[in-house]
Design brief:
mainly alpha, about 130 residues
């Protein structure tokens, strides 16, 4: 234990391990930080399924479907270029779309401009600790 955070993290791990040991049913866990999982957890897993990030084509389909119909997309937004340039997960794309929808609503519902979209994408990448 190096600091108070480690102490509480160790307590949480011990609590969750105890809950896993005492639970008779199926347990499904999901994470996008597999490298941060405690080894004690990994030893208890009978199976692991890896979901790779979406391909460029998958991201394109997600981008094209994620915005509500009330949000008008500006003519300068090129979904194929956005999908190629920014490697976001589906959850990241949803976060960007929600942020943009709120931003668009706050601005009185003008068309979503590429600059606003890219700023939201960079914001999301920053939250994930990644930059382009």
């Amino acid at each position: 234990i190096r600091d108070a955070h480690d102490k509480y993290a160790n307590q949480e791990v011990a609590f969750l391990l105890q809950r896993l040991e005492n639970h008779a049913g199926l347990v499904i866990l999901a994470t996008n930080q597999r490298g941060n999982l405690d080894e004690a957890f990994l030893r208890r897993f009978q199976g692991s399924i890896s979901f790779p990030p979406p391909s460029t084509e998958d991201r394109l389909r997600i981008w094209q479907k994620v915005f509500p119909s009330q949000v008008e997309i500006g003519s300068d937004v090129e979904w194929p270029a956005i999908a190629r340039r920014f490697e976001l997960t589906g959850a990241g794309i949803v976060n960007v779309a929600q942020h943009c929808a709120i931003e668009t609503l706050a601005r009185g519902m003008p068309p979503l401009e590429n600059a606003v979209l890219e700023a939201a994408i960079l914001r999301e990448l920053g939250k994930e600790g990644r930059m382009v």
